[in-house]
Write a structure and sequence with these properties.
It is built from one helix and seven strands, in the order βββαββββ. The chain is α+β, with helices and mostly antiparallel strands. The protein has a single domain, classed as Roll (Ubiquitin-like (UB roll)), CATH 3.10.20.30. The strands form two sheets. A five-stranded mixed sheet has the order 2-1-7-4-5, covered by helices on one side. A two-stranded antiparallel ribbon has the order 3-6.
Length: about 100
């Protein structure tokens, strides 16, 4: 899967955020299927980093967030600790069919 990564040194740890559907599309139509963010962090901080670094604005009520395949609400939601090598998937709840 082709993605856009932040430039990190070899000693840095990161987590992978995968964006599905229209969440991974910039206003110019460019597709961003995957982003790497610094870790460890909390889920809420990772979402804030997506906004500040990549301009991706997410409405929490309109997305499903999976952390390593588990829905974030079943964990600690935005307080969930995210470690290096974790995978966070963001899926829109509303989509065309």
């Amino acid at each position: 899967m082709e993605g856009v990564d932040l430039i990190l040194s070899e000693k840095d740890s990161f987590l992978t955020v995968r964006l599905f559907g229209n969440l991974g599309r910039k206003s110019n139509g460019e597709r961003i299927p995957e982003i790497r963010l610094s870790a460890p962090t909390r889920l809420g901080e990772a979402l804030a980093q997506l906004r500040s670094t990549h301009g991706i604005i997410l409405n929490r009520e309109e997305i499903l967030i999976l952390v390593n395949g588990v829905e974030a609400n079943a964990l600690e939601d935005l307080e969930t600790s995210i470690l290096a090598d974790d995978k966070v998937d963001l899926l829109p709840i509303y989509h065309g069919g």
